[in-house]
């Protein structure tokens, strides 16, 4: 059997009275508007009045086009919710998800959900993601992360400069094992899993040789670790490493040693 929509009068008849329906709508956690065929508000629950920022007696009789602008006509055509920015008096802007449910009589239920806090959190998370992305990219050290199958998931500009691989190389077919002499990747993972090199899941200032795209060997200092599933610490998700190029430091040390020898002669 196909589903059918009840008019508010038919619904009231089934539930006992219009007052019963109104009382039910008054206690739902979202704003509810009852809109007639001319798209004018005929009923608003208390939550809707608070979200819109208009007293209920004044909200009844308002046109939905006046309340929601061009979004309302689009909702009628598209039949899916829209995010609408409202500007209630003395409150500032408020982001509201607005959706419509039609009936056979041509009336609509319009439901309103205040998502302002969620949108603020999304913006804050996006801002933090951008900050950490810029922080990683601006590092002169190479920062590399890979999943437990060795597929690279982070390869910053410092890694590009030091190792000679492009980001396209790194995120394409480059396996993390190719960055080290044979067997070194497995040895690094064993050290990270050990308690002896900074604690389980950590590896601090470990000196090793990295292999560039051209096959050159570069002395590096690696600090890194294992990223675990926050709900299951036995589940390893990825590894990461911060690679410091030691060539300049070793050159300075060699120059100092040479100078010291000359002074002793």
- Beta-strand fraction estimate: 25-35%
Decide which structural class fits the backbone.
Answer: alpha+beta
- Overall geometry comes to elongated
What is the N-to-C order of secondary-structure elements (H for helix, E for strand)?
A: HHEEHHHHEEEHEEHHHEEEH
The helicity comes to: 25-40%
Strand order of the largest sheet: 2-1-5-4-3
Low-confidence stretches: 1-6
User: For the terminal residues, how far apart are their CA atoms?
Assistant: 103 Å
Kindly provide the radius of gyration, computed on alpha-carbon positions and rounded to a whole number of angstroms: 32 Å
Assembly classification: single chain
How many helices in DSSP terms? 11
Task: Compose a concise summary of this entry.
40% of the residues lie in helices and 29% in strands. The protein is an alpha+beta fold. The protein starts with 7 loop residues before the first helix and ends with a helix.
Descriptive account of the structure:
The structure is a single chain. This protein is 40% helix and 29% strand. The chain contains eleven helices and ten strands. The strands form two sheets. The protein has a five-stranded antiparallel sheet with strand order 2-1-5-4-3, sandwiched between helices. Strands 7-6-10-9-8 form a five-stranded antiparallel sheet. Strand 8 and strand 9 (217-229) form a beta hairpin. The termini are far apart.
């Amino acid at each position: 059997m196909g589903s059918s929509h009840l008019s508010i009068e038919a619904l009231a008849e089934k539930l006992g009275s219009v007052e019963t329906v109104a009382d039910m709508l008054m206690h739902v956690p979202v704003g509810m508007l009852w809109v007639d065929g001319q798209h004018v508000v005929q009923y608003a629950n208390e939550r809707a009045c608070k979200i819109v920022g208009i007293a209920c007696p004044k909200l009844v009789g308002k046109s939905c086009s006046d309340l929601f602008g061009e979004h309302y006509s689009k909702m009628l055509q598209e039949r899916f919710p829209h995010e609408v920015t409202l500007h209630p008096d003395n409150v500032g802007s408020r982001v509201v998800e607005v959706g419509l449910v039609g009936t056979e009589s041509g009336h609509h239920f319009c439901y309103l959900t205040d998502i302002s806090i969620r949108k603020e959190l999304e913006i804050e998370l996006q801002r933090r993601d951008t900050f950490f992305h810029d922080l990683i990219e601006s590092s002169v050290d190479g920062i590399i992360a890979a999943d437990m199958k060795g597929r690279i998931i982070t390869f910053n500009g410092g890694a590009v400069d030091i190792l000679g691989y492009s980001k396209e190389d790194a995120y394409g077919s480059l396996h993390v094992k190719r960055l080290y002499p044979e067997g070194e990747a497995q040895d690094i993972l064993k050290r990270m899993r050990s308690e002896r090199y900074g604690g389980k899941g950590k590896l601090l200032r470990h000196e090793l040789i990295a292999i560039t795209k051209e096959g050159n060997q570069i002395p590096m200092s690696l600090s890194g670790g294992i990223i675990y599933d926050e709900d299951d610490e036995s589940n390893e998700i990825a590894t990461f490493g911060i690679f410091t190029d030691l060539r300049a430091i070793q050159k300075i040390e060699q120059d100092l040693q040479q100078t010291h020898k000359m002074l002793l002669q």
